Amino acid sequence: MIEKRIIHTDAVREAVRALVRDANLVLPPPAAAALELARRGETGELARCAMDIICENAAIAERERLPLCQDCGAAIVFIELGQGVSLAGPFLLEAVNAGVADATAAHHLRASIVSDPLRRANTGTNAPAFAHVDPVPGDSFRITVLLKGGGSENMTALRLFKPTDEPATIVTWIAEAVRAAGPNPCPPLFLGVGIGGTADVAALNAKRAVLRGDAPHPDPFYADLENAVRDACNATGIGPLGFGGETTVARAYIVAAPAHIATLPVAVNMNCHSLRYRSMSL
Amino acid sequence: MKWAPEQTPLSDARLASLAAGDALLLSGTLLTARDQAHRRIEEMTRRGEALPVALSGELIYFMGPSPAPPGRAIGAAGPTTSSRMDRYTETMLSLGVRGFIGKGRRSPETKELIRRRGAVYFVTFGGAAAYLGMRIIAAEPVAFADLGPEAVYRLTVRDFPIIVAYDLHGGDLYEAGIRGPAGI
C-alpha cells in the first residue's frame, strides 16, 4: 500500500478565498508589464490617456483594496490533482465554492452569478465556480483561479475549420473576431486561442492558454504563430478600449491539442486588459 | 487630453454643442441601470405602471457596482457593454433620458435613434473601475433594490471622465478613432 499525501479541503477553501481576493486586487506581474509596454507604445492622445488610466487603475486597486473591475468575474478554477494525493474533509468542489463565497463576502466583491441561465436568480455569493480538475502524476496539488468578466466572455468565438485550412486563414479569422468585438471586451486584450481537440476542448484550452505568463511558447512554430496572431490583431487599429491605437492585443497565447483527421476546431477567448489570475500550490 | 468641467443636468443647447471626442469631467448626479433594470422599466412602461424613479432629463450610466467597502460610497464602478441595452433605448428616450454613458459601439439603428431624439451617447474607461469608483462620492439605491448590483442607483459624481462617442451631428468617436493610423 503506497502512502498517500493527505490534503484537507479546508485548506483548499482557504486557498481559493485568498486567490480570489488577490486576483481581484492585484494584476499578475506579466500582465502589468505587458500593459506598461502597451502604454509606452501609444502616441494617440486618447489611446495614451486610456492606457494611463488603465495603469493608474491597477495602482488604485492595489492601494485602496478595491477590485480592479466592478465585474469581479466568474471564478474559473483549475486544479492539478496529484494522483498521490488523498483528499480529506468536505467534497472538493463544495470547498472551492465556499472559498469563492467567503472571498465575495469578506472582500466586498460583486456577486455576478445566476443559478439558472434562463430564470436568472443571483446566487448572491458569486458561486458556483466553474472548476476543472486534471489528474497529474506525483503528489502535488496546484490550484489556479482565473476571474472572467462577462463583457469579454461574450466576445468568445469558435469556428470549425477544414483540416486543410492554412494557419494564415486561422490568423485572419482571429483578427476579424477581434475587430468585430471592437471596444466591447476592453482591449488591450490577452487573447487565448485553443487549436485542435474537439470543440469543447478547444474552448477550454483557449481559456487556460492565458495562464502561461511570461514564458514563450515551448514550440517555436506556435511561438511564431502567437506573434502572427498578435500582429494581425494590432493591424486592425482598434487600440486601447477601442479608441484607436497600436495595441489591441497585448499578447496572444495558443494551446494546441491533437485532433480528428476531419476536424480543425479553433476557439478564441478574449480577456480584457485586467487579466486576473492567481495560483498556489498546497 | 483637454478636459472640460461639466455640471449635470446638461441643457439641450449644451448637448447640441458637443462633438464626438470631446472629453468632459462630469460633476453632479447620474442614474445607473443595466440589463434587468432596463427590462423592468420597459415592462412597467408597457403595462402603464408608474416608475419608482423619474427618468426625465437624466443621464443613464450602464453600470452595476461592486459593494461599497466600509467608509466608501461605492466599490469599483466601471461601465458595462452598452449594446446589450440597445433594445431598450427607444423606451428610455421616450421617458425623457437625455444621454447614456457606457462602453462600446451601439447598433446602427440605435445610434441613429439616439441622435434623432437629441440625446448623446458617452463612453468612459472600460475596466478602470477602481479609478472611476473613486470619483463617485455618493450612491443611493432608488429602484429595484432586490436586483442588488443591477438595481438603479442615484450617483453623485465629481470629475467623472466621459468622452462624447456619438454626437448630435453624426460624429462617431469609434469611426474617427480607428481610421487614424495612431489613434486620434
Top keywords for this entry?
heterodimer, A: 282 residues, alpha/beta, 2 domains, 4-stranded mixed sheet, 10 strands, globular, B: 184 residues, fumarase, 5-stranded mixed barrel, 6 helices, 24% helix, disordered C terminus
Give a verbal description of the structure:
The complex is a heterodimer of chains A (282) and B (184). With 282 residues, chain A is an alpha/beta fold. Chain A folds into 2 domains: 104 residues, no CATH class; 124 residues, no CATH class. In chain A, 39% of the residues lie in helices and 24% in strands. In chain A, α1 packs parallel to α4 and α2 packs antiparallel against α3. By secondary structure, chain B is α/β, with parallel strands linked by helices. Chain B has one domain: Fe-S hydro-lyase, tartrate dehydratase beta-type, catalytic domain (fumarase). Helix content of chain B is 24%, strand content 27%. Chain B has a 5-stranded mixed beta barrel. The longest helix of chain B has 12 residues. The C terminus of chain B is likely disordered. The chains are: A alpha/beta (282), B alpha/beta (184). At the A-B interface, α3 of A face α5 and α6 of B.
The number of E-state strands of chain A comes to 10
Number of helices of chain B: 6
CATH homologous group name of chain B: Fe-S hydro-lyase, tartrate dehydratase beta-type, catalytic domain
CATH topology assignment of chain B: fumarase
Find the biggest chain interface: A-B, 53 and 49 residues
Q: How would you classify the helix and strand content of chain A by structural class?
A: alpha/beta
Strand residue percentage of chain B: 25-35%
Helix content of chain A: 25-40%
- Low-confidence stretches of chain A are none
Task: For the record, give the distance between the C-alpha atoms at the N and C termini of chain B, rounded to a whole number.
Answer: 11 Å
Secondary-structure class of chain B:
alpha/beta
What is the string of helix and strand elements of chain A?
EHHHEEHEEHEHEHHEEE
Taken together, the total number of domains of chain A comes to 2
Output the number of helix runs of chain A: 8
Number of domains of chain B: 1
End-to-end separation of chain A: 23 Å
Widest sheet: strand ordering of chain A: 4-2-5-10
